[in-house]
Amino acid sequence: MLTLRAAQRRWRDTSVRWRVAGSATAVASVLLVGALVATSGGPAPRARQYLTFKACLLTDAQGITGKDAVPVWAGMQKASLETRARVQYLPAFGPTTVANAIPYLTSLIQQ
Fold first, then answer.
1. Residue 68 CB partners (closer than 8 Å, separation 6+)
2. What is the spatial distance between Cα 8 and Cα 14, in angstroms, rounded to a whole number?
3. Cα(21)–Cα(88) distance, integer angstroms
4. 8-31, pLDDT tens digit by residue?
5. Which of 19, 41, 92, 100 is in Cβ range 3.0-4.6 Å of 104 for a Cys bridge?
6. Distance (Å, rounded) from C-alpha 92 to C-alpha 74?
7. What is the rounded CA–CA span in Å between residue 93 and residue 111?
8. 101: number of Cβ within 10 Å
């Protein structure tokens, strides 16, 4: 273990060039850390940060303006604001049957 006197003796025996270089490195390190800490508290990102999953709504041909879809879509958007989950919808065009909706549902699942 290095005692205080031994450290002082070693410091005195070190050349001036090494002392200056060591001191400059220490000062530069302190300034760098200070700059990083000072700039890390910047403004929040402007883009909304979403979670990694989505909630999907399959609607009839009227989309989210249909009378049955309006309250559901409003609830999904409210939940998205509170949980940061991404929401999306897809209208299924054509007759309102299960057979017609399956390709649209498959499209939502693949996304």
1. 60
2. 10
3. 59
4. 787 777 777 777 777 777 778 777
5. 92
6. 19
7. 18
8. 17
Q: Are 54 and 89 in contact (CB under 8 A)?
A: no
Q: Given a cut of 80, is residue 75 above it in pLDDT?
A: yes
pTM of the shown model: 0.53
Please report where in the chains the tokens 């017609």 appear, as a residue. Answer: 100
Cα–Cα dist 41/44, whole Å = 9
How would residue 72 be classed by pLDDT, with cut points 50, 70 and 90? very high
Task: Give the pLDDT score at 42.
Answer: 64
What distance in Å separates the CA atoms of residue 43 and residue 60, rounded to the nearest whole number? 42
Tokens 């910047």 belong to residue: 42
Residues whose CB falls within 8 Å of the CB of residue 55, separated by 6 or more in sequence, listed in order: 76, 79, 80, 85, 86, 87, 88
Distance CA 61, CA 59 (A): 7
Cα angle value 108/45/90 (rounded, 5°): 15
Residue 43 has pLDDT above 80, yes or no: no
